[in-house]
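Human: If only I could read backbone structure tokens as easily as an amino acid sequence. Take your time, and here it is.
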Amino acid sequence: MLNIIPKEKFKSIPWKNGKGSTLELAINPNGSLNDFEWRLSIAKVEEDGVFSDFTGYTRNLVLIDGEGIVLNHHEKHIDHLNKKLEFSTFDGANMTIAKLTAGTITDFNLMTRTTDFNGTVKTYSGTHEVVLDRTQICFIYGLSKKLEIESVDFDNIEILSVGDLMQITNEPDIEKVEINVSGENFIVVYINKLESLKFNIIDQVETNLSE
């Protein structure tokens, strides 16, 4: 249920536009750069330029190091990421032009296939509690200090080192597991299959009607 993926297992993958590379942290089973359901990665952006085309995917980009980046989407919407852990959510089909504020930055990326998955990013600078339900896959990534992750229901505590990734998945027969995360400067990613979300909403409505 709690699985730590050490940084030594991350893979370096060339960008689709050939202008750099990304560090792939995690990807759905049997996924590849050209065909995946969801994917987590980290990349350095060293120059201004146009992002790769990821039509069919929703992107979440988090600033994790550097002085800032401006994202211009189709020249209609602009995101200014100036502080660590600020992020932007946008359509991977956008012609997104990146302009660096003051030199190289590093970003953390979540990409999910828009028709099949919902991806949510939350960033924290203090101590927080994360509660998962049975439909969720969750990832936790810490930037500055070790994180203490406690599974209350299973009396289990794990220590996540800086730069490592933790994946949390629920057992199918468990409705909810409470997870406490203690630390600072960390990212939590939720990935839900849209079909699962639909059935959960229907189950909740039927339960309310029967009460």
Observations:
- The chain is about 10% helix and 55% strand.
- Helices lie at 194-210.
- The radius of gyration is 18 Å.
- Confidence is low (pLDDT under 50) at residues 201-211.
